Amino acid sequence: MQWVMKRNCSISPRGLTAFYLTLCTVSLAIAAAFWFAGARSVLAFAGLELLALGAALLVYARHAADCETITLAGRELAIEHRCGVDVEHARFRAEWVRVEPVRSDGSLIEVSGEGRRTCVGRYLRPEWRGQLAHELRLALRLRD
Q: Is the C or the N end of the chain the one with fewer CB within 10 Å?
């Protein structure tokens, strides 16, 4: 069994790059027309604006593919959390796993066992985290 939770990403990094390059082309063409008309500072400000926008879009694109994957296969529960370029892995023996919310108010779900713990549910709405915890507990009980 596998659960995959991802960020709600409205545009892919590839689509975002195409949008940004189109925006750069249009903005620089307009700024070049002003430069030829004698308004020399417009091109410099357009360049600064595009650099700032590019930096913001780069931060967005870096985290667009963030996700959590929980896999229950046989006697092992594996959890993978991707955040930007960082990937964290946690593996637990299924018979020793405890699944509990950190708090009872829809907070993250703590998965613990064998002296280790990790939290999941970052990309779920708080009201759905209880359902995930219930599904994990049920799957762990019925795994055999």
A: C
CATH number listed for the domain at residues 66-141: 2.30.29
Rounded to the nearest 5 degrees, what angle is found at the Cα of 39, between the Cα atoms of 35 and 44? 70
Q: Name the β-bridge partners of 113.
A: 116
Amino acid at 108: L
Rounded CA-CA distance 58/63 in Å is: 9
Give residue-wise pLDDT tens across range 29-62: 999 999 999 998 999 999 999 999 999 998 888 8
Report the chain's mean pLDDT, rounded to a whole number. 90
Query: What is the SS3 assignment for 76?
Result: strand
Judged against a pLDDT cut of 90, whether residue 78 lies above it is answered with yes
Question: So where are the chain's domains?
Answer: 5-63, 66-141
